[in-house]
Amino acid sequence: MNMKTIALCASVMWPGSVAADAIDGDWCAPDRLQRVNIAGPKITLSSGTEVAGTYTRHEFVYVVPDGEPGAGMQVYMRQLSEEDVEVHLGEANPELWHRCQAVVS
Q1: How many C-beta atoms lie closer than 10 Å to residue 17's C-beta?
Q2: Hey, CA dihedral for 56, 60, 26, 94, is it positive or negative?
Q3: Are 84 and 25 in contact (CB under 8 A)?
C-alpha cells in the first residue's frame, strides 16, 4: 500500500472523524416539516427564503431572517456524519437533523 492509501484508510476509520464529504445538501428536522438546503455559503429555508451564512466544509452558521420563526437568532449547524447534522438554535438544546430522503413517486 502506498502512503496516500494508508492515509485515506486512517482518516475513514479514525474514531470521531467526519467521514462526510461536506455539509452541502438537503437536511430535514426530526418532524420532517422543516427542511433546509445548503449550497456553499447560502441556505434555503423551508419557506423558500435564501439566506447567506458562514460556510465551512462541515459547519454552517446563519441568522434567522425577519418573518421566520426564531427571527434574529443564530443557527449553528455541525455535520456529525454523512447522514446527521447537529442544529443549535440560539441557546436551546441541539436537535439532530438527518439528510432528507429522496421522494419517490
Answers
A1: 11
A2: positive
A3: no
DSSP state of 34: -
Kindly state the cell numbers that stand for 100.
Answer: 432528507
Walk along the chain (105 residues) and give the pLDDT tens digit of each residue. 433 333 333 333 333 444 458 999 999 999 989 999 999 999 999 999 999 999 999 999 999 999 999 999 999 999 999 999 999 999 889 999 999 987 655
Candidates 60, 65, 52; CA nearest to 79 is 60
- pTM, rounded to two decimals: 0.77
Instruction: Name 57's bridge partners.
Output: none
Please list, in sequence order, all residues whose beta carbon lies within 8 angstroms of the beta carbon of residue 81, skipping any fewer than 6 positions away.
18, 19, 20
Q: For residue 82, what is its C-alpha cell? A: 454523512
* Burial of 88 from C-beta contacts in 10 A (0-12 / 13-18 / 19+): middle
